[in-house]
């Protein structure tokens, strides 16, 4: 039997087909854009995900050249869709989805801080209040789009919207519900009527069914079978948020193990077993396997891979042009030059807060900074400084976890597109002090999705069987001397934010 996993990401969708031994049979991907109609706004139309899913699924099945009857099922993971898609009773979207990086709910966030006990919020939900969380975005829709609010039947996460289109069944999973924040009770693993009343968010506007990630959410409808090339009645697995699914793709099932998912943004996470959340500075919700016992706790930067993408788009035209002629990517060309720049970028220090920041500072008005620049500095200096800034942010989250009492193993798995950069992976290892383990097949979240198909349909009996799929490519070890040198820059990194955040906030208001 073959197992299909699809991850609906922020800037693209990827589908893979694996066999029962975890071997990659085929894959397909499609990219798309985030709509930013105003500063700090970020939204996407739901149909973009449906189209990308159908295209990548159909393409991967055609490449694999397999009998649809041999496909055990499909599982989906997705970006954190913030508020979710507001749909009417006919399940038609009423407004674009305000995704995780949208920061428009600043007034709503401030209202919660002034009117709701932070201790109560953390006790019930395991989380903090920030415009990152979906419940504040739902409040923004209520306060600013009365017609949309009035006609909204449900708020549906990205992958759950696609699942509905495939099956006609509406549900969500524990990780997606937990990442909404605010109205999810992490203790009972259900919607909190108490918080719903306090925040004036009717629980009735949220999906009634909350499933385990391995549960079958529904079965493929006849019309969608014709569009995708799959067999009618193929099981569709509930899946989960992309970050914990990427964590599962590294075979992580135990306390102390931790994974750095580095793509457009960063999600670094670890697990707690039968324990309460340790700090509101990190995000907490049930894991995608063994949800009754395992708590996924993570922190992340809003812009990681986005930093270098931005830099190349704005300043890398020469590298793009030369790359087209030479066969090298602009990333490879800039990395070749950045390798020659000494550790610390010769006195250049950057703050990576190009879209505000999530954990651990939770500051939507934080801004990017390139500090210490002189006429001596060249393009590779800035490129490397941006890479180092992402590593400092990762270390900040790791340090926050450790200070809250979480113990971490000396090795950290690294998955995602950023893991393809040898220089960046080495910088992460040297800045954080944790060795970085790279997988030979950097499939990421779709691998976790595919495994859940096997778990949900009975091909696999227990989560531990995913470890049979894990193949290590290499381990990039920390250089102790480099770590000691970076330690000074890390202290300045923290100091630079503390000394400039008031100015950042004033600029944001202007």
UniProtKB/TrEMBL annotation:
Residues 261-451 form the Carbohydrate kinase FGGY C-terminal domain. One of its GO terms (molecular function) is phosphotransferase activity, alcohol group as acceptor. Residues 2-248 form the Carbohydrate kinase FGGY N-terminal domain. Keywords: Kinase, Transferase. Pfam families: FGGY_C, FGGY_N. It comes from the Bacteria. InterPro entries: ATPase_NBD, Carb_kinase_FGGY, Carb_kinase_FGGY_CS, FGGY_C, FGGY_Carb_Kinase, FGGY_N. GO terms for biological process: carbohydrate metabolic process. Belongs to the FGGY kinase family. This is Actin. It comes from Petrotoga olearia DSM 13574.
